[in-house]
Write a structure and sequence with these properties.
3 helices; about 80 residues; single chain; mainly alpha; elongated
Length: about 80
Amino acid sequence: MATAGYVLVLVVVVVLVMVGLLALAARARRRGVGHVVMGPFDEVWHPSGGHTHLEAQEQRERVTPVPAPGDRPDAGPTR
């Protein structure tokens, strides 16, 4: 009977660890720090994945250009 108790404790501990990891992953995604934690592992196992992350980060940080003083406010991009 003691063996069943050890198995039950082991299962509970594994479930709690998994729930904790899921909560940590969700928090990292919300805060945008997931790549800081997983970046080195991503570079080892999937080197081009880091380039994709850097490109996405650059696109997020880009700002729209300020129009020149002589431009009309409704002037859009020309084709």
